[in-house]
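Researcher: Structure prediction, please.
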Amino acid sequence: MTDNKGYYVVLGVSEKASYKQIKYAYRRLARKYHPDRNNSVYAEEMIKKINTAFEVLSDETKRAQYDKMEFDNLQEIEPKQAPAHINPKRSKMANES
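Model: Predicted structure follows.
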């Protein structure tokens, strides 16, 4: 997943969604994109994503690991910024002219 909420976005639920909300979203999307009901190539790809998202988010242990992994990945992706009080310009030293 390329975005920071991946599986939550696939199912269309918030990060604080209950199991019941996740299951409801999964069933609704599974009916919509199931290959027996939808013949497009996109539907086949979507049903795989939906199944994977549900598999992870419906299991408390996997969901906790996923949430932690996402948080850790965000910290690695975001560049470290220097504190605002530090001037990024290099000041001249006394022996430099």
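Model: Helices lie at 6-11, 19-33, 41-57, 60-77.
Researcher: Thanks, that helps.
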